[in-house]
Design goal:
Blueprint: E1 4-6, E2 12-15, H1 20-30, H2 34-41, H3 46-60, H4 67-84, H5 94-107, H6 112-115
Antiparallel strand pairs: 1-2
Length: about 120
């Protein structure tokens, strides 16, 4: 679904953003799809699946192209939630990290903890 207003001659002229109520209704409709039940059987929570659909509609203004895209989005969000685990310190913002790194280098301090490359997370 695209949310474009058509002009009188049929051309797409202007984007009209969806309201929160419209997004909520669209998300609820998608939660009844068979792919959602498969994702639930794989262990994803309904709240996570709902958030994935909501983010997709809000930011991309369109549905997932395939069920695989939805599954990958659920996997990514699930891993992010588990890694962050409610701790704001676990969120690294590249620009902030780089600025701090540059400041530390100017001071002659190299924090080896920041330079340490963490082991990749194994995806099951």
């Amino acid at each position: 679904q695209r949310n474009l207003q058509e002009s009188t001659n049929g051309e797409n002229s202007q984007y009209i953003p969806w309201t929160n109520d419209e997004i909520d209704r669209m998300v609820k409709a998608r939660l009844d799809l068979p792919v959602v039940e498969k994702l639930r059987q794989e262990g994803y929570s309904m709240a996570l699946i709902r958030k994935v659909y909501e983010m997709q509609l809000r930011f991309k203004k369109d549905d997932f192209k395939t069920d695989v895209d939805l599954r990958v989005a659920c996997l990514i969000l699930d891993k992010q939630v588990k890694l962050i685990n409610g701790n704001e310190a676990n969120i690294l913002i590249p620009q902030n990290w780089l600025n701090k790194f540059i400041e530390d280098q100017k001071k002659g301090i190299v924090n080896t903890e920041q330079l340490e490359i963490k082991k990749p997370i194994e995806i099951q």
